[in-house]
Write a sequence for this structure.
């Protein structure tokens, strides 16, 4: 769907009598592929919408789009309104969690709850030297070389606890976002546009119930960030997954869904503060 000058790719799985409507937002350098194990579990009783955040996955890589978290969040809000989705539970992994928090800050009336899976938080605005460099004509080539140097295999090894789970399907799925060369220009633009994460003052104003689920061995966004978030979000609850890293939607999908279901049931019964 074309929104604010960029194409937003989404997959929509409506349920005739849904308990909830789940909206899934993936992390940085990823796509809806990261929720391939969660979606079948959630759609048994719920409506599920998963979105490729631009410029990732199959979404657009428009050169004039503003890739700030605030603008991405406000554009997703437009999409949710167009689809008339009700009783929304926003689920965000890593960077997607920060987009969820932005949506909760902008339009709390749309949300029943927010589920943060190893959510990125407290990151400052990009240093000025990188913002200035992003204006250089060949900066996108440096971005491409940097990502090629790190490589999909190295990145996957950094985000999972059990290295044995990495297979060709994972390699291919997480490589796909980079097969379109236009993404590197858009990533350069994202460096330029990215504001800092919501600070403590704003986090403390978010009254939407927030469920935090973290991998105990997360090396990308360590558990200490989740514990800090729990302290700053007024209505939050933290669950820790043993023997799990950063990519918990792939590593622990059944446990995640069980925790979410228990949390929402408790919320319905008035047990969530």
């Amino acid at each position: 769907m074309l929104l604010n000058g960029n194409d937003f790719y989404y997959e929509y799985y409506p349920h005739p009598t849904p308990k909830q409507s789940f909206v899934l937002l993936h992390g940085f350098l990823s796509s809806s592929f990261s929720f391939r194990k969660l979606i079948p579990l959630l759609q048994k009783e719920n409506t599920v919408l998963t979105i490729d955040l631009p410029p990732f996955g199959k979404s657009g890589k428009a050169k004039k789009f503003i890739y700030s978290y605030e603008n991405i969040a406000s554009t997703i809000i437009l999409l949710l309104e167009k689809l008339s989705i009700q009783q929304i539970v926003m689920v965000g992994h890593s960077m997607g969690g920060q987009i969820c928090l932005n949506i909760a800050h902008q339009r709390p009336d749309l949300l029943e709850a927010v589920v943060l899976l190893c959510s990125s938080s407290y990151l400052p605005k990009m240093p000025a030297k990188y913002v200035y460099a992003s204006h250089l004509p060949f900066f996108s080539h440096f971005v491409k070389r940097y990502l090629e140097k790190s490589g999909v295999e190295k990145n996957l090894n950094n985000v999972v606890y059990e290295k044995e789970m990495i297979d060709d399907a994972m390699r291919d799925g997480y490589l796909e976002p980079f097969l379109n060369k236009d993404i590197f220009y858009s990533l350069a633009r994202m460096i330029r546009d990215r504001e800092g994460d919501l600070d403590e003052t704003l986090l403390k104003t978010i009254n939407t119930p927030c469920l935090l689920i973290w991998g105990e061995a997360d090396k990308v966004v360590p558990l200490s960030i989740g514990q800090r978030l729990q302290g700053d979000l007024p209505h939050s609850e933290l669950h820790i997954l043993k023997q799990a890293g950063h990519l918990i939607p792939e590593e622990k999908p059944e446990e995640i869904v069980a925790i979410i279901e228990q949390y929402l049931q408790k919320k319905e019964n008035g047990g969530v503060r």
Q: What stands out?
A: The chain has a mean pLDDT of 92. The radius of gyration is 18 Å.
